[in-house]
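Field log, afternoon session.

UNIT: design team B
ACTIVITY: writing a sequence onto a fixed backbone
BACKBONE:
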């Protein structure tokens, strides 16, 4: 006996773009402008999307309409579908015209500055026909950019399966170490701190928290920053201890020394699941994986 076939909703890419616009802009007018339609056309398109999905996506808040929590699944689907459709359009344009186009890369600073700066430089020299655009930021932000279709490749801390619609390829493992304000090698964990660390919610902060808990070190955090150079400077001023990747801690004019390794983190290359193959991404991946230092 055959199972009952579920009818698929007849959704358009344009309707999904409308949904993303509303989610990503502060006002209805700004959302409409971002997709080049009037506010009334945006409203009509989203009403049709609700009808076709068969689930209410918005609540009324006075005169405003706000996304319901139940819309999260539809929103995640929209991000993935729109991003993959843009990938296909880019691939088709390159196949049709032979143009090389642009390659948009998102990297955490340890990757862009510490591990892969020479790789990026040599890749650009070998492919002058490509416009290479680099964005540097925290892992979470780079994965958000990837899912939204704003970058083609993200090099970040391994999200360990926490991101739907993302494929990862291991690149290297790097050490993370504790550094003290007096420059001496840290010995007894029970005497460490207070701390200046990466912000709560970041991938690396979670690794640091787990490692310090395992060592029995107190975790009194007095300052936070995504920027390793800021954390190094605060340690130099005696404001606290820090935990940083060795490549970020022990370079620069205010380099730290005598770190004690307490953990490691995996850096990966992340791409969208199911994306049309981009030859430029494949070439860069080959270079990064082949020359990435301590491979996994």
């Amino acid at each position: 006996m055959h199972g009952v076939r579920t009818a698929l909703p007849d959704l358009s890419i344009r309707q999904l773009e409308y949904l993303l616009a509303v989610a990503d802009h502060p006002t209805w007018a700004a959302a409409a402008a971002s997709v080049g339609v009037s506010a009334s056309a945006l409203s009509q398109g989203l009403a049709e999307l609700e009808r076709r999905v068969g689930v209410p996506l918005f609540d009324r808040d006075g005169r405003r309409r706000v996304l319901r929590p139940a819309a999260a699944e539809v929103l995640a689907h929209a991000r993935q579908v729109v991003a993959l459709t843009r990938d296909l359009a880019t691939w088709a344009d390159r196949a049709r015209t032979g143009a090389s186009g642009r390659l948009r890369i998102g990297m955490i600073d340890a990757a862009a500055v510490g591990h892969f700066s020479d790789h990026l430089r040599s890749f650009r020299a070998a492919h002058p026909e490509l416009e290479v655009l680099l964005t540097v930021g925290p892992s979470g932000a780079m994965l958000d950019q990837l899912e939204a279709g704003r970058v083609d490749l993200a090099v970040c801390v391994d999200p360990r399966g926490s991101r739907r619609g993302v494929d990862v390829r291991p690149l290297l493992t790097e050490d993370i170490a504790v550094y003290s304000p007096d420059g001496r090698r840290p010995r007894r964990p029970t005497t460490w701190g207070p701390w200046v660390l990466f912000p709560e919610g970041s991938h690396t902060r979670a690794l640091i928290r787990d490692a310090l808990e395992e060592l029995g070190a107190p975790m009194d955090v007095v300052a936070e920053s995504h920027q390793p150079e800021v954390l190094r400077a605060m340690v130099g001023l005696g404001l606290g201890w820090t935990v940083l990747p060795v490549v970020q801690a022990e370079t620069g004019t205010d380099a730290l020394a005598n770190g004690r390794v307490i953990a490691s983190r995996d850096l990966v290359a992340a791409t969208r699941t199911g994306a049309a193959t981009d030859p430029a991404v494949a070439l860069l991946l080959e270079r990064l994986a082949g020359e990435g230092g301590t491979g996994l």
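LOG NOTE: The beta strands are 58-61, 64-67, 102-107, 131-136, 153-157, 166-179, 195-197, 221-224, 242-245, 260-272.
NEXT ACTIVITY: expression trials, pending approval
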